[in-house]
Amino acid sequence: MFRKPNWEGINERVGGTDPVFLNPVSMVVEHLTKIDFYNYKILCGGASEIRNHLVSCIENGDKMFVVTLNSQIFLRALELSEYDDALKNATFHLPDGAGVVWAIKKHCKVVTDRVPGIDTMQYLCEESKSRKWKVYLLGGKPDAVKKAAEKLSESGVNIVGYHHGYFTDETPSREIEETKPDLLFVGMGAPRQEFWIHDHIDLPFKLAMGVGGSFDVIAGMKKRAPRLLQKMRLEWFYRWITDPISRSGVPVDVLKFYFKVIFDGKNGNCKEIH
Questions:
Q1: What parts of the chain have a pLDDT lower than 50?
Q2: In 10 A of CB 246, how many CB atoms?
Q3: Do residues 67 and 77 lie in contact, with contact meaning Cβ atoms separated by under 8 Å?
Q4: Which pLDDT tens digit goes with each residue over 34-43?
Q5: How far is it, in rounded angstroms, from Cα 12 to Cα 183?
Q6: Burial class (CB in 10 A: 0-12, 13-18, 19+), 261
Q7: Domains (ranges, CATH) in the chain?
Q8: Residue 260 to residue 189: CA distance in whole angstroms
């Protein structure tokens, strides 16, 4: 029987230096706190503390649906009420996007590290080696997910199965039922990946998380932004300039999110949960 994670004890304010939106930041965040951001439960704090909390929950047998929240996911949920409902049913969200981190600081007065989905996935995969966790990959192009699975397997991760994202039946569900992975990473892009996890929450996993295009990066088929741009919180900008056609709406989304949060910020849409 899976249990939902216990939030008790995760209610201390976080501290650190003051981050600036889209500027380099060096923070020391020592505690975890949880906030309600537009009715989404976000776990805030230092990246290592947040990831260690995930590890503890998995070891405790908790069942988690984790969303890596960024401005594009947030704006998409404003357009689709069904998507908004799915996100609100997540166990908690991680502050993935630079804009989300900035908004939390501005309106909740809480400092948090940015916690990218791909870094969290790689961290959990590394932990899985010594903890004997099983991992399943779902989504992406056939060659990308296959190569990602092979690379992870070669590094010592116990990949019990994988399936590309171009399916129209329940084949992946049956495989997950049979293999019972501890970690289920779904790389089908938003909103499809969160919809899929939400609709298959009864499958036997301990943690399920949408990871977007992470399989492409792990497979070596795409590159992440240079470290400097990551530190400057400009990873979205790198994705846009390297793929301007498919990501043409990214700059507009950044501005939409900025003004949405600015105008809504005084209406109590961001508060700590005690």
A1: 1-2, 9, 11-28
A2: 9
A3: no
A4: 999 999 999 9
A5: 28
A6: buried
A7: 118-222 (3.40.50.2300)
A8: 23
